Amino acid sequence: MRKLIALCALGMALLGFAGVGHAQDPASAPAVVEAASAVVEAVAEAASAEAAAPAPVPDKGDTAFMTMATVLVILMTLPGLALFYGGLVRSKNMLSVLMQVLVIFALISVLWVVYGYSVAFTAGTPYFGSLSKVLLAGVTPESLGATFSKGVYIPELTFVAFQGTFAAITTALIIGAFAERIKFSAVLLFSVLWFTFSYLPMAHMVWYWDGPDAITSAETLETVTAAAGALWQKGALDFAGGTVVHINAAVAGLVGAYVVGKRIGYGKEAMAPHSLTLTMVGASLLWVGWFGFNAGSNLEANGISALAFINTVVATAAATLSWIAGEALLKGKASMLGGASGAVAGLVAITPACGFVGVGGALILGLISGLICLWGVSGLKKLLGADDSLDVFGVHGVGGIVGALLTGVFASPDLGGTGICDYVANTCGGYPGIGAQVLIQAEGVLYTIVLSGVVSFIAFKLVDLIIGLRVSEEEEREGLDISSHGETAYNK
């Protein structure tokens, strides 16, 4: 369009010159008119070329990659998270956990397309989007979603589906903190409230922006930044959900453990996991599915998605080893539960960092997170005094915080990280400095803790007021499988 306007202006100038030349020198008029005709033809050709320019088309490879990444995140939840949690509870509560994970996934998937996507991923305020895409209004098979590379797109419907799986698994993560004693109806009502007022604002604050193609100069960068989410504006780095997913869910779970109260017999009766076999299967499915979670968050298949993939392998393996090594030193034996928990701790910690840090950084991050999360489910848990049934805060909260903060360290190019991309100069590798970035990361962590903590407390209190949170003592002793769902996981 700019070329067309320039050619038109040139043509008008030449025509004007022709008029002057004709008045001063009649012999020069034919040459000037010929030049003007050439300009007019050039203008017509430019207009025709612009009209014929094809619309951007999503790359089929990227689209296929993101479709498979979405499937893998679904696998993480169903059956991965369900089996991981299910194996950790007592047999009388196995089905209740499976049911809660299944139905939360279904519930949030519906709410996501009704209003969730619109609130999280449209322009609005720095904290909330708008309702312009309620029920996916205006989103068609031809709609395009931006990636992190200029001129590269995926179908917007693919992005909608991918991000919807994040919302669903995040909400389902929370239930592990108060498993075995909460009403099924209370879980669902709380999920609606928390998803609406905690998950959606966090997703918008951390991940919403207009995309790289809108940035062509310092002025447009300023415009795009001003329209982005609050934490994106500040430069907080969260590749796949350390704040949005793990810290957000873990804080909600910890608040729930306090408000719902401890299980009957907690600290006095044996409450050992009923099937570490299923827990191992669930942890393995989580690890496999997490490749979609982390690598898919790059939104395209390139070197950065490969970096996120290998970092997910390395950090998880390192955390598994450091956890069981610490456990062996403390208790004399390495346990299967410890190995599975260490793997999840590594997955959690690498999530915000996976596309920003080098492989060496991922290795160190995994080793650190395994040991700190081991302390999180032992020493810290005793200090907090909450009955966090399945150690949601000890693994997801502690691991998420460690990962978010260390992202600010190991994303530095001086330590093998990728740095930050400059979309004005179209280069990557700049960095504000480790200290400055860690402060930004800490601010993102604080935002998440405060928002999720306040929203969760209010939501739990509202649910308790409306329908009650906890089953009766008789129902809890009988087990939620029978008392809440009328069936059992294992028939004798």
Automatic annotation (TrEMBL):
Membrane topology qualifier: Multi-pass membrane protein
Parts of the chain that traverse the membrane: 64-85, 97-117, 157-179, 186-209, 239-260, 272-292, 304-324, 336-353, 359-380, 392-411, 445-467
Signal peptide (UniProt feature, chain positions): 1-23
UniProt-recorded Gene Ontology molecular function terms: ammonium channel activity
Compartment(s): Cell membrane
PANTHER family in the cross-refs: AMMONIUM TRANSPORTER MEP2
Family in the record: Belongs to the ammonia transporter channel (TC 1.A.11.2) family.
Protein name according to UniProt: Ammonium transporter
Lineage: Bacteria, Pseudomonadati, Pseudomonadota, Betaproteobacteria, Burkholderiales
